[in-house]
Design goal:
By secondary structure, this protein is α/β, with parallel strands linked by helices. Among the domains are: about 55 residues, Oligo-1,6-glucosidase, Domain 2 (Oligo-1,6-glucosidase, domain 2), CATH 3.90.400.10; about 130 residues, Alpha-Beta Barrel (TIM Barrel), CATH 3.20.20.80; about 80 residues, Immunoglobulin-like (Sandwich). The strands form 5 sheets. An 8-stranded parallel sheet has the order 11-10-9-5-2-1-13-12. The longest helix has 16 residues. The protein is globular, with a radius of gyration of 24 Å. The N terminus is likely disordered. The protein binds 1-O-alpha-D-glucopyranosyl-D-fructose (TEU) and calcium ion (CA). The site of 1-O-alpha-D-glucopyranosyl-D-fructose (TEU) has 14 residues, from loops.
Length: about 575
């Protein structure tokens, strides 16, 4: 792996070159591939592993250190692969195990690690374990899943609701018991209390490491310690016991990166997962900035305007919580979330490019490991779906009757799904301006955003001022500069309604980032803790060699200056 032991530069001027204390994944940037929508090599309209291999040079040029690959395992695809029927087989539509091995090798040759998606809160109902388990009350695999008798009137054992809408219990007629599924009924929850099940998972993970993978992203990992009878689902009593066991049995001694998806993680419990002496994970994906923007009553299904001050507060709180121990992940978007530039920026023709670059600047100069979601590096936008029936996503389809039944109007639901729904991020990657957008020569499984003729990789990459060039530069800066990976984070002007600003400090140096996150010019009084003079390392609207006092910022102007603290 590249950057594993990057040498620090002699910035302190003491003539010493030290081995950096950072691990490779603290300097690396991750890139998420949602394989179904990335690149289709065989023309069946579905992205695949050979297609991904054909685009590795694009990712190597971007400079990323690892790919988080959303599931490619065998699956009936009720939830696009997050319903796995065999952890050690590749879905035929994505390719073969030989393709997977070639991907790992080809990525490695470019200094890129492959991080697999570990989906072990649940399997598919078509997994061999579940097929066996449902057969009888005494089946050897029965206890791998969560079964309960019906309540006295024959209904579900309790009121637990699926995160995709509707009851979390489904009656299995074969044995007359209900099984638990926190997601779709085709995603039965595994029973982590069973030690034999855990041992099977550890062995499976170890075999993936033997194939040369660089780590795991762990799907809804905060749900595995649940105590369903006590009504505790996320952050359950046995969660950290299981993660520590996982570490002992699979991760210990390996130089790999792990990131647990944890919607319940808060600044005050994140160190339990990522503290350096905990023996758990490298970092978690937490969603405070996402949930902050949701409606109190209808969650993501009722669209709300962006609240910049609230957004900054959330990021600043996480930077503070993990300042000295633990490690942050940094992301705007993923396959479950809207496109960054549409959600937090301005995706109009006038400001799309500059606002996408400004958002990248804000995120990538914080402390943590940034993740780029496919297409974000060229500023891809949300797609407008005009009718509820056009959506493909199981979460949207299951929630439609539930949310409209709770009083949300059909128009509001459509607006919410367009603003926050998961299909936005899942429309195919836009590579070229030609028919099929360079994604497929066939019929794409989900429509391609019609703006692909203007917004595509080829067009953006040919523009030296494009979004890609900006991301590439930010990623390279993180690889090279300790102040970005390690510097102390100093929030600035947190209450300013338009400007995002912070400083980073290390060894007598300061890096100040100031960004106008609106489509209008704004005047900003930089607090003295941000004063800096030196070299401009990132800019979306022209360079500046110093930042001090009153600053007039153009729309979506972001600028970062690295230098010494100017003597006052
Ligand atoms: O997502 C977890 C999850 O809880 C999301 O579905 C989330 O609830 C939703 O987007 C917000 O309303 C993970 C995967 O990332 C997702 O794609 C899977 O569908 C889900 O787990 C089940 O495996
Ligand atoms: Ca294909």
């Amino acid at each position: 792996m590249r950057f594993r032991f990057a040498l620090t530069q002699d910035r302190a001027g003491d003539g010493e070159t030290k081995m950096s204390a950072t691990t490779w994944w603290q300097r690396a940037t991750g890139y998420q591939v949602y394989p179904r929508s990335f690149c289709d090599a065989n023309g069946d309209g579905v992205g695949d592993i050979p297609g991904l291999i054909s685009k590795l040079d694009h990712l190597a040029d971007l400079g990323i250190g690892f790919i988080w690959l959303s599931p490619v395992y065998a699956s009936p695809m009720a939830d696009n692969g997050y319903d796995i029927s065999d952890y050690e087989a590749i879905a035929p539509e994505f390719g073969t195990m030989a393709d997977m091995e070639r991907l790992i090798a080809e990525a490695k040759a470019r200094g890129i690690g492959i991080v697999m998606d570990l989906v072990v809160n649940h399997t598919s109902d078509e997994h061999a374990w579940f097929k066996s388990a449902r057969g009888s009350l005494v089946d050897a695999k029965r206890d791998y899943y969560v079964w309960r008798d019906p309540d006295s009137d024959g209904g579900p054992p309790d009121e637990t609701q699926s995160l995709f809408g509707g009851p979390a219990w489904t009656l299995d007629p074969v044995t007359g018991q209900y099984y638990l599924h926190l997601f779709d009924r085709k995603q039965p929850d595994l029973n982590w209390e069973n030690p034999a099940l855990r041992a099977e998972i550890w062995a499976m993970m170890n075999r993936w490491f033997d194939r040369g993978t660089a780590g795991f992203r762990m799907d809804v990992i905060d749900l595995i310690g649940k105590d369903i009878d006590a009504g505790i689902i996320a952050d359950g009593p046995r969660l950290h016991e299981y993660i520590r066991e996982m570490h002992r049995e699979t991760l210990r001694g390996r130089d790999v990166v792990t990131v647990g998806e944890a919607w319940s993680a808060r600044p005050d419990n994140a160190l339990l997962y990522t503290g350096r002496d905990r023996g758990e994970l490298s970092m978690v994906f937490q969603f405070s900035h996402v949930v902050e923007g949701w409606d109190a009553e209808f969650g993501k299904w009722r669209a709300r305007p962006r609240d910049l001050v609230a957004l900054k507060r959330v990021f600043n709180a996480w930077q503070a919580a993990l300042a000295d121990d633990g490690w942050n992940s940094l992301f705007w978007s993923n396959h479950d979330l809207p496109r960054a530039v549409s959600k937090y920026g301005d995706d109009s023709a006038e400001w799309r490019v500059r606002s996408a670059k400004a958002l990248a600047t804000v995120l990538h100069l914080m402390k943590g490991t940034p993740y780029v979601y496919q297409g974000e590096e060229i500023g891809m936008t949300n797609m407008a779906f005009s009718r509820v029936e056009e959506f493909d996503d199981v979460e949207i389809r299951n929630n439609y009757p539930v949310q409209t039944g709770r009083g949300l109007s059909e128009d509001e639901f459509l607006a919410g799904a367009n603003a926050n729904g998961r299909d936005n991020a899942r429309t195919p990657m836009q590579w070229e301006a030609g028919e099929g957008a360079g994604f497929t020569v066939g019929t794409p499984w989900l429509p391609i955003n019609p703006n692909y003729r203007a917004i595509n990789v080829a067009a953006d990459r040919s523009d030296p001022e494009g979004v890609f060039a900006h991301y590439k530069s930010l990623i390279s800066l993180r690889n090279r500069l300790d102040i970005i990976s390690q510097g102390r984070f100093v929030p600035l002007a947190e209450d300013h309604p338009a400007v995002w600003a912070y400083a980073r400090e290390l060894a007598g140096e300061r890096l100040t980032m100031v960004a106008n996150l609106t489509s209008a010019p704004v005047g900003f009084d930089l607090p003295p803790e941000g004063t800096v003079a030196g070299r401009c390392i990132a800019a979306t609207a022209g360079p500046r060699d110093g930042l001090e006092g009153r600053i007039e910022l153009a729309p979506w102007e972001a600028v970062a200056v690295l230098g010494s603290v100017r003597p006052t």
